[in-house]
Specification:
alpha/beta, eight-stranded mixed sheet, elongated, six-stranded parallel sheet, 14 helices
Length: 385
C-alpha cells in the first residue's frame, strides 16, 4: 500500500499541542508513514488549546469540551466531521484510539457512523482486580464493548494479549512501547540527588500516586531498610490522589524526614542516573515505562512481577518479589546495599536484556505501518449492540 492511508487518531495527550514535545515529534514520524494524519485530543475549554498543523500532513484538534464527561462525545462528533470532510475511504483509512475507554468509545462511535475500521491501543490491564474505583468500573464496561467491536488491537506485551483474547475475536498484535535507548543513555545529568538530599543511599520510585501503584508498601520497605541502614532515603517522583495519605503514612512510620515527594518532573535523567536503586511495588502495570527507563539509565531494580518485569529473570535482571511476600522487598534492597558487585552486575544484566528486547525505531515504525495497513482492510466486521 502506498502512503495514501488516512488515519484518524483519538488521544488524550495534551502535550501534542506543545511544539517540540516528545509526543509531537513522534507524531511527525508517524505522519511520514501515511498520507494524512488527523489527531483529535480529548481536552476541555479551560485548557485553552487551539487547533494546529504539526506538519504538511498532520493536524491536531482539541475537543474544547465544557466538562470532562462530554469529551468522548465531542471527540466522536469532531471525528465524524473529519472523516466526512477529508474524504476517508474504506479500505484506505483507519481510526486508531489511545485506549479502549473514553478514546475507544469515541472511535467506536465514528466507526459506527462511517464503517471505517477501528484499531484500539491497550497499554494497561483494564480487567485486573486492581483496576478499581467508580470511574474504572465504568471504563471496564466501555472497554468490553469497544474491544468486542474493534477490527484490530495493539497491546504492549504477551501477557495482555493472552488476557484480552478472552474479550474479542479481533486480531491482536504485540508492539512494545518504542523507547529511544540512545537518548536515555546519552542524556546528561544536571544535578546529583546525593548532593540535594544528603542521604548515603537513595531509593527512587517514579509513579502516579494512586492506589494501584501500592506506594504504601514502598514506604514500609523504606522503614524496614532504615532499621539496618538509617542513612537511606526515598525520592518519590509523581503526583496523584494518594499524596496526602502517603505523607501521613510516612509520618506514622517515623520516616517523613527520609522521604522526598518531588512531584512530576519534566526531566528524569538526573533522578535515574544518580539514585542507587529503583523500586516499584505496583499491583499492576501495563508495560512499566519508568522501570525500563531506570534500567537503561543503569539502575538496579526491585519490583513486583508486573508489566515487562514478567519477562525478566529474577535475581539476574532484577529482584522480582511476589505481592504476597512484601517482607522480601526490604531484604532485597538490603542485599543490594550490602553487595556492590551484585548491584552493579544486576544493573548491567538488566540493561543488556532491555537492549535485546526493545525495538529499534525503524523496526517499530515498520511494524506500526503494517498494523495500520492490515487493519484498514478489515471492513466487514459487524458492530455488536
Amino acid at each position: 500500500m502506498e502512503k495514501d492511508l488516512k488515519v484518524l487518531m483519538i488521544s488524550s495527550d495534551r502535550k501534542l499541542f506543545i511544539e517540540g514535545s516528545v509526543v509531537s515529534e513522534r507524531m511527525k514520524e508517524y505522519g511520514a508513514l501515511v498520507g494524512e494524519l488527523y489527531i483529535v485530543v480529548l481536552s476541555d475549554a479551560v485548557h485553552l488549546l487551539k487547533d494546529k498543523q504539526l506538519s504538511s500532513n498532520i493536524w491536531v484538534y482539541s475537543t474544547n469540551s465544557i466538562v470532562n464527561f462530554l469529551r468522548p462525545f465531542d471527540a466522536a462528533r469532531l471525528g465524524k466531521k473529519i472523516v466526512f470532510e477529508k474524504k476517508f475511504i474504506r479500505g484506505k483509512s483507519i481510526i486508531t484510539t489511545q485506549d479502549p475507554f473514553e478514546c475507544g468509545l469515541s472511535g467506536l462511535k465514528v466507526k459506527k457512523k462511517w464503517r471505517i475500521p477501528l484499531e484500539v491501543q491497550l497499554h494497561t490491564d483494564p480487567f485486573s482486580p486492581y483496576f478499581d474505583g467508580f470511574l474504572n468500573r465504568i471504563r471496564k464496561i466501555i472497554a468490553r464493548k469497544v474491544l468486542r467491536n474493534a477490527d484490530g488491537i495493539r497491546v504492549v506485551n504477551e501477557g495482555l494479549k493472552s488476557k484480552i483474547s478472552k474479550f474479542t475475536s479481533a486480531p491482536i498484535k504485540v508492539l512494545p512501547i518504542y523507547i529511544d535507548i540512545k537518548r536515555i543513555e546519552d542524556a546528561k545529568v544536571s544535578f546529583d540527588l546525593h548532593a540535594r538530599f544528603k542521604w548515603h543511599f537513595i531509593l527512587l520510585t517514579v509513579s502516579r500516586l494512586s492506589p494501584e501503584k501500592n506506594l504504601g508498601l514502598t514506604l514500609k520497605v523504606l522503614a524496614g531498610v532504615c532499621n539496618s541502614f538509617p542513612d537511606t532515603g526515598l525520592v518519590v517522583v509523581g503526583s496523584g490522589p494518594e499524596e496526602g495519605r502517603l505523607k501521613a503514612l510516612a509520618r506514622k512510620l517515623s520516616i517523613e524526614k527520609k522521604v522526598a515527594f518531588v512531584g512530576w518532573q519534566d526531566s528524569l535523567t538526573s533522578y535515574y542516573k544518580t539514585a542507587n536503586i529503583f523500586i516499584q511495588t505496583s499491583f499492576f502495570e501495563g508495560y512499566g515505562l519508568a522501570l525500563v527507563e531506570a534500567g537503561l539509565s543503569g539502575l538496579p531494580v526491585v519490583t513486583t512481577p508486573v508489566g515487562i518485569a514478567q519477562e525478566l529473570e529474577n535475581e539476574k535482571d532484577a529482584y522480582i518479589i511476589p505481592l504476597d511476600r512484601p517482607e522480601k522487598f526490604s531484604e532485597a534492597v538490603i542485599d543490594l546495599i550490602e553487595n556492590n558487585y551484585k548491584r552493579e552486575n544486576m544493573s548491567m544484566n538488566f540493561k543488556q536484556t532491555l537492549e535485546s528486547k526493545l525495538l529499534t525505531k525503524e523496526v517499530y515504525l515498520a511494524r506500526l505501518k503494517t498494523n495500520w495497513e492490515e487493519t484498514s482492510e478489515a471492513i466487514d466486521r459487524i458492530i455488536e449492540a
